[in-house]
Amino acid sequence: MNTISHGLQSWLERFSQAELPALAAVVNDLQRLTLTDDASVGQLADVLLRDAALTSKVLRVGNSSYYNPSQETIKTISRAIVMIGFENVRLISLSVSLIDGLLTHAPREQLQELLARSFHAAVQARNIAGYVSRQEEEVFIAALLFNLGELAFWGCGETQADALAEALARPGVKREEAVKQVVGTSFRQLTLGLIKNWNLGELAALAQSPGRSADAAVRAVTLGVRISEAALDGWSSPGMQQAIEEMAAFIHVTPQEALSQVLASADEAVKVATTFGAGRLSRLIPSTDPEQIQLQQAQRKASLLQPDLALMQQALQDLGLQASGRGEVGLVLDTLLKGLHRGAGLERVMLAVLADQQTVFRAKRVVGEGTESWLDDFVLPVASPQQPHIFNYVLRHREALWMGVPASCNLNDMVSEPIRQWLGKGMFFIAPLMAGTRQIGVLYADSRSSGRALKHEQFVAFQRFTQLTGRCLEGLSRRA
Questions:
Q1: Model pTM greater than 0.70?
Q2: Which fold, 309-479?
Q3: For residue 293, is pLDDT > 60?
């Protein structure tokens, strides 16, 4: 299409009616589902099943090792929603739609660079949000679409995109002035217009004016975007150092831990882009392996436990097979601890079971440096409802928790002094282990040995292992 557009309204009409109507419709429908509390599996499936190609791609991503490490085959959208969650399927659908809508034809370099930066920002923002908010998926989408107006322009601007590229290449040009002259409006106004027209929600809109909001999710979005931009100047650039310091203060970790998290998120962004079918963008996400970083971290990295994805997948597959009731309890628990420790890279893991007529928690299985003493020493009374502690709480509420981050700070008082004396201070994962409706005990994991921050993908694996182990124990109890 060669129609010349100039000004905000002209561009919005062109994107939504002529250039990107299919993308606009899918994005609108997917976002509308977040506005109702009773959005159902069926409603999300209906949106996707209108487009066979989109359905196929969502299922391919849902079956990837990133989202489905157990490799249990997912053949339907409904099954995908059950296996990897409503919000994850919505996130995948929106991301795949964006890639297809913008990269279908021969995309110009500016579009590819910006889309790569958008995926990088989204992963950084989501992992920051894991510390401070329960809105990780919404944060991912808001960061991914943070530069939607500019993405749409480079994808559909044609002769005007050529003109802007030429203008920006001139020495000493002021970017905002050049954009205003060629486009007739700013990219920020274009993004805000699309957010409104496509019903992208309050978080996406607030992120465009972060100074007006103290919301933690908004700050996670803007920090993720800043980190993705600063990374283009190098991991040790002044802009990156400032962003790292702000991030450390925001999520209450040291600057070194924040940098470690940022580098891990950059590597994760490469995997995410490839998983979503945008492997060509991977080369545009800044590498985390420049020589200076290798020199600084090689020695420490060599001594630390590293996740083993292949081993984790095998452990999940083994548990999946044992869920039918085959095998025996000892093998199930061995597989569980091996998968969490050597597979997910969690340094210390403990299964504390209800014992002594369900009056205490006792350590049943442990793995990791310095955990041997827990087998003899860890005995925690099951508190009364009037005096709950975190082990008691997760078992009663049947909820997996990531403790030590602001999102769960309201439960910090439940980490009692005896628990701190046995396990130390810092972040940890904790979840109830159930065999159907029967309470077995509590699963605990941390990376306290090295002091490394726990990661989003480790928490996902922790939850998955807990669920599968519960199914195994339920199957064994039925067989018995």
A1: no
A2: Beta-Lactamase (3.30.450)
A3: no
